[in-house]
Amino acid sequence: MSGGSHSASARAVTPVVVSTGRNGGGGGAGRMSATLAGEVTPQRVSVTVVATMKVLLLCWRDSRHPEGGGSEVYLERVAEYLASPAGGRHDVTFRTARYPGSAPVEHRNGVTYVRGGGPLTVYPRAWLAMLRRRFDVIVDTQNGVPFFARVFGRGRAGRGCGVPVVLLTHHCHRDQWPVAGPVLSRVGWFVESRLSPWIHRHTPYVTVSAPSADDLVCLGVDRDRITIIRNGVDAPPELPQDAGDAVPSGGVHLVTLSRLTPYKQIEHALHALAVVLPDHPGTVLDIIGDGWWSENLRQCAEDLGVTDNVVFHGHVTEEIKHRLLAGAAVHLMPSAKEGWGLAVIEAGLHGVPTIGYSSSDGLRDSVVDGQTGLLVDSEGGLITALAGLLDDPERRRELGDAARERSRNFSWDLTGESWKSLLKRIHRPRR
């Protein structure tokens, strides 16, 4: 009834019978009726109670780690969606490594972050945690090496039941392993290319692009076990009209947005800058992000004589990141390998086209060559493409407009909803 005044005349009220979906004693248990006056016709209303799941997400880093990047952002956004009302209010734990200044346990946006171990010891720490606690479903992120939740995970569905596991991999790491050294690289590649596909031969996979799915098939993964769930993108904050003035300069701005590691090949962006500067004096390269390769890149800039035209911003806030992107003319992504290329979509939100390598598999999905950006085959091609766009502002605007339009098709809600549906399919309710 409403909270307002009641009419003096009696009204017939239809009682409501609520079914809880359980069998109670005496046949009347679990049902409720209410009658004020008049004859009534009972109606049965089914109330579906959806049980929340205990979900464990495993990743070697989180986005606040000094080496964190797009792949970590991806899993965090998935975690936040699953913990949200739209995602089902699930009990979500994100287990990852510790880093200087990090808390062992942190609650953020509905997700519990549990940190323990370093770059290598994060794995055995996670194994012990999985043996001690039971979960309804586990998402195991394979950044080269998985956590082997398929072996160590324990389910809550019932005695003798293993926990359903999904293996998330953004891309194949064949080209990245040599950085780890001659011994560790061989072991790592063996684990990724032989051991993991065998252990996970019945496990569903998720990856973020069609080329990454092709790589998994080449490693022996059945294509019908692979689901492609692409990245979303955060809506940029409202920026003032002078948003492009984040770095004072009268010249054109180029931008890279990346972890600073060898395989990201930011040196190629520095080389390109050095070549175009004579014809485009005052051009500035904004490097957003940080990593253990940073000092090598600073030395490279010094050796090329472009130090005064390069700004190393390091890790920045979301607002500053979007200010820098909004002020750029071209986004350079010379990475040797990308599973998708989240920075491509983030730059596209501001009408900034991307130049990258066609050999970087994920970029063939995130960049529509010739429409939202340009894909080239070599460092020389990257330099030529950049010079061409700097000489042709109209072409640059055409590519940027198309990039903006395409970027609007991606959202973390769509990504999260896809994950929610997948986990619901594989979840085995407790008996």
Automatic annotation (TrEMBL):
Residues 69-234 form the Glycosyltransferase subfamily 4-like N-terminal domain. Keywords: Glycosyltransferase, Transferase. One of its GO terms (molecular function) is glycosyltransferase activity. Residues 254-406 form the Glycosyl transferase family domain. Belongs to the glycosyltransferase group 1 family. Glycosyltransferase 4 subfamily. PANTHER family: COLANIC ACID BIOSYNTHESIS GLYCOSYLTRANSFERASE WCAL-RELATED, GLYCOSYLTRANSFERASE. This is Glycosyltransferase.
